[in-house]
Design a protein that fits this description.
The protein is an alpha/beta fold. The protein is about 40% helix and about 15% strand. Strands 1-2-3 form a 3-stranded parallel β-sheet, with helices on one face. A 3-stranded antiparallel β-sheet has the order 6-7-8, with no helix packed on it. The longest helix has 20 residues.
Length: about 200
């Protein structure tokens, strides 16, 4: 029965999946006030209505920003992801933002299932002819022996001087019109970004 209307109805199932946070630091206001608060509000409304929402999120442990933070802290990506991943869960709980499952793909019970599903997905796509393999040029730093992709890619927009981290300008109030042409100067092509991130 709906607590809002008092009418009995058959409960409907809903799956809410706010994006996984990158465990390279604590949650910021954009995370909390954005997808996490929104999903919590929607889930609460659905429950009051008599429905059955399921909220699943997790920790994006394989993001390059985790490795970069580990380098800055003289730690390992696993240690950084575990520490900040737990802090993210603690912050959500402290704010009473409900999550039914918090998936950490490099830890059990999720790791084996995650790896099997990724492998199976790639095999299915390959069998359907949906995977295209190509060689792309990607910036490399000889001093650190690191590919300059994701969180390791930093610089300034050649047109306006705004700071660029990863594939985006970080100046929140700065006009974004130069981003596309600025990135063309940093990387050979847009497909390189995806090839590097996946490869």
């Amino acid at each position: 029965m709906s607590l809002l209307t008092g009418v009995t109805h058959t409960p409907r199932h809903y799956l809410l999946v706010p994006p996984e946070a990158t465990p390279n630091g604590p949650l910021h206001l954009g995370h909390i006030g954005g997808p996490f608060l929104w999903s919590d509000m929607i889930a609460r409304h659905l429950r009051v209505r008599g429905d059955l929402p399921l909220v699943i999120t997790g920790s994006d442990v394989y993001e390059s920003y985790v490795a970069r933070q580990a380098h800055a802290e003289d730690s390992t990506p696993g240690e950084v992801a575990a520490r900040y991943g737990q802090r993210i869960q603690d912050d959500l709980a402290a704010l009473r933002i409900g999550v039914d499952a918090f998936v950490v793909p490099d830890q059990q019970p999720w790791r084996e299932q995650f790896e099997q599903e990724v492998t199976a997905s790639i095999e299915r796509l390959t069998a359907r002819g949906a995977v295209l393999t190509r060689t792309e040029r990607v910036p490399h730093c000889p001093a650190s022996d690191r590919w300059a992709v994701g969180g390791w890619l930093r610089g300034r927009c050649p047109e306006c001087g705004a700071g660029i981290t990863s594939y985006f300008k970080r100046a929140i109030l700065h006009p974004m019109q130069h981003t596309t042409s600025a990135m063309k100067g940093l990387l050979p092509s847009r497909t390189t970004l995806y090839a590097a991130a996946l490869g």
